[in-house]
Amino acid sequence: MNLLAIVYGLAFIKIGIAHFREPGKFVEIIPPFLPFPLMLVYISGAMEIVGGVAIIYPDTQVLAGRFLALFLIGVYPANLYMWTHDVAFDGTKFGTQGHVLRLLAQLLLIAAALHISGDLDRSVFSA
Hints:
This protein is mainly α. The protein is globular, with a radius of gyration of 15 Å. It starts with a helix and ends with a helix.
């Protein structure tokens, strides 16, 4: 088993569970133009748990890595909404530097998902 995949997967499982244990802090960062914010929190939490479990197992790493990369792109609008509307997450507001670091972390998480799937290595090193 891949140690990076295990750590990565466990982090997603932990965050996914937090969506069910403390949904209110996630509801706050959903842009108001999206309907049913609580349902979106539960759906995204379930997706994080499933993706986290799937990326741990070698047989499902390719699909899970691709899924989590797309998922991270799909949920970034919540982070962007926090940035552009100065919305606090769990009572904490981030300055511009904090939001830039969150963006860089998001990009790193996407790259890690694609690395675990093997897609990053194939696309970067095949040329």
